[in-house]
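Section 4.2 – Deliverable D4.2 (structural model, holo form)

The reporting period included a commitment to supply a predicted holo structure for the target in complex with adenosine-5'-diphosphate. Inputs used:
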Amino acid sequence: MSLMLEDAWRKFRYSLGSEEQTVDFAACFSSMLRPADVVALHGELGAGKSVLARAMMRSLGVRQQVMPSPTFSIIQEYEARNCRVAHMDWYRLHGAEELEIIGVREYFQAPWICLIEWAERAPDLLPTTAMYLRLMVVEDRPSCRIVEGRVPASRAWKGWAG
Ligand SMILES: Nc1ncnc2c1ncn2[C@@H]1O[C@H](COP(=O)(O)OP(=O)(O)O)[C@@H](O)[C@H]1O
Ligand SMILES: [Mg+2]
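Output (C-alpha cells):
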C-alpha cells in the first residue's frame, strides 16, 4: 500500500475572474503534468470543469478541433505532445464496476494523462497519487470561479501568478 502523507501535498486556492483567467490557469497547471498523472476535476454542473479540461488539453498539445463531451462515451482519447490524454466524465456511471469493465486503470499509466470530471462517482478507483482541482461558482459574479486543489509537493510547480 502506498501512503501519501498530508504534507506530501501542496494545496492552493486561486480566484479566477474570467473564463480567460481559467484558461490561463489551465495552461500554467498543465505545464507541470506528465504521463501517468491523474487529475480529478470536481465541482457542480456548470462550474467549469469542461472549460478547464479543454484548456488543459490544448496546452498539452491536443490539436483536434472538436473535443466532444465525454458525458455519454465516458472516455474521449486524444493525441497530445509527448503524451496521450484521456478526458473522462464519470457522471453517468452507477459504480466502479462499469469502469473496471472499460479497463480504466490502463489510463492511469504512461503514456496517458487523465482528466476526470465527476471522479467522485468512483473515488476508490482513483490512484492515491491523483491530484485534484475543485471549481466553485461565486455568488453574484457569474464569470468568476474559485479553484482549489493539490499537487504533489515534490513536483516543481511555482503555482499560478494570476
Ligand atoms: N471563470 C470561468 N471559468 C470557467 N467557466 C466559466 C467562467 N465564467 C463563466 N464560465 C462559464 O461556465 C460554464 C462552464 O461550463 P462547463 O465547463 O461545461 O461546466 P462543467 O463541466 O463543470 O459542468 C461555461 O458556460 C463557461 O462559459
Ligand atoms: Mg463537464
